[in-house]
Design a protein that fits this description.
By secondary structure, the chain is mainly beta. It has one domain (about 20-85). Helices cover about 0% and strands about 35% of the residues. Strands 1-2-5-4-3 form a 5-stranded mixed β-sheet, with no helix packed on it. A hairpin with a 6-residue loop joins strand 1 and strand 2. The N and C termini lie far apart (about 55 Å). The model has no long low-confidence stretch (mean pLDDT about 85). Bound molecules: zinc ion (ZN).
């Protein structure tokens, strides 16, 4: 009798990849890590800033006083809306 069928116990690091976009289920808005360089669409990769519309995101209050809102971006190519952290 051999016991070679033991499953290898691999170590599972508890790290979570931080770069993955998170989807806000209630709003459908993606939140991505702010990337250096050009802003680009997390979905289609469009980085033409004329095709990316920036707007104030009133649901995303960054600071209460003075009141500062976050921004959200709309891709003119694919219609994706996202936020940056
Ligand atoms: Zn896009």
């Amino acid at each position: 009798m051999s016991e070679e069928n033991k499953e290898p116990e691999s170590e599972r690091p508890e790290e979570q990849p931080d770069m993955q976009p998170e989807m806000d289920i209630s709003t459908g808005i993606l939140t991505i890590e702010k990337a250096p360089g050009r802003r680009k669409c997390p979905k289609c990769g469009n980085d033409n800033k004329n095709m990316i519309k920036e707007s104030i995101d009133k649901e995303n209050i960054i600071m209460d006083y003075p009141r500062v809102y976050g921004k959200k971006y709309l891709c003119g190519e694919c219609g994706t809306v996202w936020r940056e952290k």
